Amino acid sequence: MNNQPIPIYGKGDQTISFCYIDDNVDICIKTLHENSYVNDVLNIGNEVEISVLDLAKKIISITNSKSEIINLPSLKEGDMTRRCPDITKMKTLLGISLVSLEDGIKKMMYYYDTYTIQKA
Question: I need a surface site. Which of 13, 74, 88, 95 has the fewest CB within 10 A?
Fold first, then answer.
């Protein structure tokens, strides 16, 4: 939103999935209140993957930013090439659609715009 460069390590072909904080909190509270998945694994996340490069492009597009993407050398330790959990249990327990990446970005934009205006 501030038109600053967006650094990406390597080519940006690593994939990741994002879970909006409201979805994360909702599933945690529901799991606690319903005593679900005790001594079991419950992945929290989103099943929609996006590459780091495509994420940067999407943010630039949604925010109408003038930011440039800057490619930096890959991390020395390496980087995970794929992060996408199996959220079958989460979706079943929640029973609702998750916040999309686009809607999550827009909610964050609104929050930070509002916060910046209130601080001034």
Answer: 95
pLDDT reading at 119 higher than 60: no
* Tally of residues, the chain: 120
Tell me the pLDDT tens digit for each residue of 6-53. Answer: 999 999 999 999 999 999 999 999 999 999 889 999 999 999 999 999
Residue 1 lies in a domain: no
* pTM for the predicted model, two decimal places: 0.79
Across the chain, the runs of DSSP E, i.e. the strands, are: 6-9, 15-17, 49-51, 69-72
What backbone phi and psi angles, to 5 degrees, belong to 9? -85, 125
Of the candidates 20, 19, 23, 82, the residue with the CA atom closest to the CA atom of residue 45: 19
Spell out the residues 6+ positions from residue 52 whose beta carbon is closer than 8 angstroms to its own: 8, 9, 12, 13, 14, 15, 16
Which two three-digit tokens encode residue 18?
A: 């994002």
Residue that is written with structure tokens 């003038």 in the block:
66
Domain CATH number, residue 15: 3.90.25.10
End-to-end CA distance of the chain: 17
